Predict the 3D structure of the following.
Amino acid sequence: MAGLVVHGAQWGDEGKGKIVDLLTEQAGLIVRFHGGNNAGHTLVVGGEKTVLHLIPSGILHQGKRCVIGAGVVLDPEVFLMEVDKLAATGVDMSPARLAVSYRTHIIMPYHKLLDAARESAKAGAKIGTTGRGIGPCYEDKASRVGIRAADFLDEELLARKIEHALCEKNALFTGLYGMEPLKTDDVLAALKPLAERIKPYIADVSAMIQEANASGVGVLFEGAQGTHLDIDHGTYPFVTSSSCVISNAASGSGCSPRELGAVVSVVKAYTTRVGSGPFPTELSCKHGDHLQSVGAEFGATTGRKRRCGWQDMVLLREAVRLNGTTGLALTKLDVLGGLDQIKICTAYRYEGAEILYPPQREGALAHVEPIYETMPCWTEDVSKCRTWDELPKAAKDYILRLEELSGAPVSIVSVGPDREQTIYRS
């Protein structure tokens, strides 16, 4: 049985958590395949809100197994905080339901210190990192000095690897940033109680995916962030440190690309962005204020106010192209209700030409002019709609126009945060 991949089609914060939670019914194994706790997925079940940063969103479904793949970078403190918080609400958080790949890289205390020091030193050139050590951890992974979950099973090896990593880190701390050096024993002592608790969760995630596929229970691959934060294909350098496109679902999980099937690209009914970087359709007017306030647009991880703007079909078209989208999940349609009009960016004007895909040169996105078309809005409260026919005509026309411009069908429409506030078209 081919797996189902759910990922973000914009700059993250699209509402992937809810969509994964809904589609978990179709899978027995849910795999988080990249990123770290710089991502936040918000779930609302029966009016109760749960925010997850590392543990896959399917964990709220009893009987489902959730795993963290090799492409993730894991902060052990955050992981255990989530485990404890969920367990306190009665969720089964035993190793029978939750696993971490042997090959998952670990965010160390020095990664977070380095992340914060670098961002502070950049002054006016900040990229808006969350300061959670994500980038430095991926750097160590590429430099082959990273700490992996499997290292928790061998304390002597763990100590040697920390000592080796600190040679370079301390040189940076003392020589470049004027900070005190870290001691191997201190780092190891702080990590040891966390490692002891995580050891039972360490498993061969690749084998688990293979077994799930062989038994036909189905695998759901859960992405973090969004396509335009991808390290290779996003708005570089204002990107995250991992690959967010769905081709990384196989590599970051530990399976063949042949195991990937349907691709659900999650997209808001408008566009938001957290942090720095170009944003062609950004609004600094009453419409932007409406989207921000009605949509409660604050980052689930950072709490930062999200920048808001009109739907950008150039970026969405690119996401569909990069990910092979088989269905769009449109979220927060209810937030648009009550506006006097809705605009859609259908193309950009760049260097005298009209273009349908983002310009490829670094920084070029900051110099495009969005080309808009205007559509009527609706006054009805769509949050109470449960079928396609119940939606106002203006809302249906807007959705159909997004389909036409993106080249992908809208198969799920979310009209509110709760599970029940969902319309299925296919």
